[in-house]
Amino acid sequence: MSPVSCTTQARQQLPAGLDWLTTGERERLEGFRFDKRRRDWLLGRWAAKVALLRISGLARSDISRFEIDSAPNGAPVPRLDGRPYPVGLSLSHSHDRAFSAVSKEAVALGCDIEWVEPRSDVFVETYFTESERTDVDAADPSDRDALITKIWSAKESTLKALQTGLQADTRSVEVVDNGDRACKGWGIARTIVRDAGEFSCLWRLGDDFVLTIAVRGAAEAPDEY
Ligand SMILES: CC(C)(COP(=O)(O)OP(=O)(O)OC[C@H]1O[C@@H](n2cnc3c(N)ncnc32)[C@H](O)[C@@H]1OP(=O)(O)O)[C@@H](O)C(=O)NCCC(=O)NCCS
Q1: Fold topology of 111-224
Q2: 18, 76, 209, 222: which has the fewest Cβ within 10 Å?
Q3: Residue intervals in the chain for CATH 3.90.470.20
Q4: What global pTM score does this model have?
């Protein structure tokens, strides 16, 4: 099995009840004021717990033993039976889908799901490096939206792996190689981070969504289910 497992879960896959949450998670859910945040948070927790079950080998009935807390910087923190669970975990939500990736070891890992939509030239000029802008300019117009979304998503995944999120300058991360290599339906690109080395960046396009996973070191296609 690949050391990274990932899953995409759609709104319709959410269980009707909340018995898969811990007491602490149910209290947290109660505290959200906005319905969209509540829905995104819930679907993200569900996807993360499905991924954790897969990598742990535990049964569906064990799902509420997992808790996904949040660090002060917003990063997800997995626990099993209230104790730290030493894996790499990341999650993302977009347009009634949630995507989560988990690595068996506690390596730096970030994932992202983005809906493919048109983005302006100003967006590219503001957030992309010169070399990324060159790649976008060279792209076939029919591939432009997907390429921009992919580069953006790879940056987000990498910044999640570094736990800085978008507080960092998105131009401090450069997406290179752009997925010339492919493995089991996933492209493999690289991201180079100013002062923080390189990440492998797995990406896949499907269903008008781009999925990316940034992981420190070499990567192989994830176990996706
Ligand atoms: C991380 C960030 C890029 C996510 O971007 P987004 O496109 O809005 O959202 P996504 O759906 O792709 O990802 C959201 C998930 O990223 C994770 N996340 C949030 N901050 C993170 C961080 N610093 N590092 C790693 N992962 C983080 C969380 O699991 C979050 O989902 P949750 O809040 O439901 O648990 C963005 O939230 C950000 O830049 N945050 C900066 C840090 C910040 O402002 N923290 C506020 C303290 S709570």
Answers
A1: Ribosomal Protein L22; Chain A (3.90.470)
A2: 18
A3: 4-107, 111-224
A4: 0.95
